[in-house]
Amino acid sequence: MKLKKLAAMMAAAAMVFSLAACGGKSNTVESKSVENAAEETMTVDKDKKEILMLCEVNGTYFTEPTRHGIVYKGGSNGEKAVLRGLADEKEFYQALLDIGAKAGDNLTAADMKAGPDNGKSVDGDKLDVFVKWDGQDEIPFRDIIQCTEDYTMDLRFGGNIESAKENNTGCVLCLDSCATGIVSDAAWPTGTTQNDIAKFYGDKDVLPEDGTRVTVIFRLAK
Length: 222
Known about the structure:
This is 4Fe-4S ferredoxin-type domain-containing protein. By secondary structure, the protein is of the alpha+beta class.
């Protein structure tokens, strides 16, 4: 009888140990699952002089004009861009420095009040910018922008980190020259959008649907 009781106790102990072990394994799997779900929003390759940023399509600007190409979702202008950036613009600024880009820092708030014929273009190192998503190889950023005027995009590392810190707009990439955006387009001087010289939209015939995640690639031009 004592042997039967001892065997039963040992079996129960083994079951408890087994359940505990299973529980530990489940937690490990769950933990790994959570880690995998936390995608990197920005990666930097210093050797390639390349930055990849995760963004989301904002379908509002398929039909409404905007001067914002990419804005960090946590900024005050987070919902005003063709692409909603998932990485902080201030960290993006540092990433550009890390790949060897030099900022222009030539624009001021006063320059943003320019009229239609006295605007100023952003300076800074030239960047080649591309976009890709599932089922679509990388294409030039210009291809996702619809504009009322024909033009050739000339994206520059404007810098503007002090303005970015002060205003916290989240502006990563502006579609005309800007004194706050980290990157903006020298092809269009300050005053372009407020004077209705050109209007910019996300191209619904090129971009995937609203909310789709895309990757934007920034490369230091050779």
